[in-house]
Amino acid sequence: MAHSPGPSLQNNLLANRLAQPFVRFMELEISSALLLLAMTALALVWANSPWGETYVQFWHTPLGLRLGEFFSLELSLGHWVNDGLMAVFFFVVGMEIKRELVLGELSSLRRATLPVAGAIGGMVVPAGIYFAMHAGQETVRGWGVPMATDISFAVAALSLLGKRVPSGLRVFLLALAIADDLGAVAVIAVFYTAELHLDALALAGVGCAVCLALNLIGVRSLAVYGVVGAFIWFQTHHSGVHATVAGVMLGFLTPTRADFDQRRETLIDAARHALEELHHALVGRGDEQPPADPAGHHRHEVVRKLEVVGRHALSPLDFLVNRLERWVAFFIMPVFALANAGVVLEASTLGDPVARKVGLGVALGLVVGKPIGVTLVSWLAVKGGIAVMPRGVTWGSILGAGALAGIGFTVALFITVLAFLEPSHVAGSKAGILVGSLVATVLGLGVLSRALPKPDTPPVSG
Q1: Model-level pTM?
Q2: What domain range is 65 assigned to?
Q3: Are 390 and 168 in contact (CB under 8 A)?
Q4: What are 67's strand-pairing partners?
Q5: Is residue 211 part of a domain?
């Protein structure tokens, strides 16, 4: 006679059933982009509502950490988001860049040349447009803003075209965005560092050396790396280099190979042994009853062994990316958007000719500079014989992908905060990013809808 599940199991099944729509939503590529859009809209509504002052006051709320007389750090909530949470974002970016450089599309010169060429064009031309408009003025510091591509929005927009998108184009846009991220990180580190304290920077370097040594001797404790990473972040923050660069450095230091890569049979044997132990602990062996384990210590130890085996089946990089990517997509980036997208749409701000010029330079860089730069430099690379076109990809689709690369949301907003001090310039840049990204999305989808093969039409039934 079959046993019905107990109440606790039924509750678990019910909870799982209720959670399924949310799990499915989080598995969709477009979901994080929709959440980002929602948080952007909320920030705009909040900042321009009768309670708009509370938006500024909330993100300027001071929050500090103190450990006696030895340690003290106080930042506003907005700075904790931009310097702290975004360091985790750039940590994941750093790991993704390293994976592409070591194992992915950027690991081979032949495969990497076209997206890297496109990324270079997509950074230089937008920056050049903005620079030409602001040369000799204080606002020229914003030349780095239109260089950035938001990989989440770009890929989500591309996914709207479904199966019409050839795999080669999807890989091209992903690799281009990764190379673009690498360029953005370099720009932030080199050009948006206000002052440099070499003593703190040297200590951050020592922390990186310690992290590398721990990797080489096989230390895999997340707690240990958490402490070392916090030290590197703190010293980078005090060095004058933006603290998020610490996240990128730690991402580059994360190993891409699993510990058992060369000993897979040993890993399989360990997993088989742990499963046999679990079976013995739950149902016994043969006619034997399961061993007495009223407190569950033995079962806990067996389950822990299985967890260790599973952990060693993944490289540290794959393990951390899979653990963090949803936190980044569904928490860190939306919170960042909420904290930074609140542009106050006042006549005094939008009427400032300098702010309007900043916004126009950013928007033109994203909408015009990106597709022209990506397409032109990619074409030169192919015609020069140093790159090849992916299978199924046309120049029209490259132009469309270049237009989607003009969606410069997250990193562009981030560079805006670093580039400008005047609130009206910040507002103008943010407005240019929002408008430019929207136009780039419409333009990119319009070009691709014409350039890509039409979806198969079902036969008309007679």
Answers
A1: 0.74
A2: 29-81+108-192+338-451
A3: yes
A4: 71
A5: no
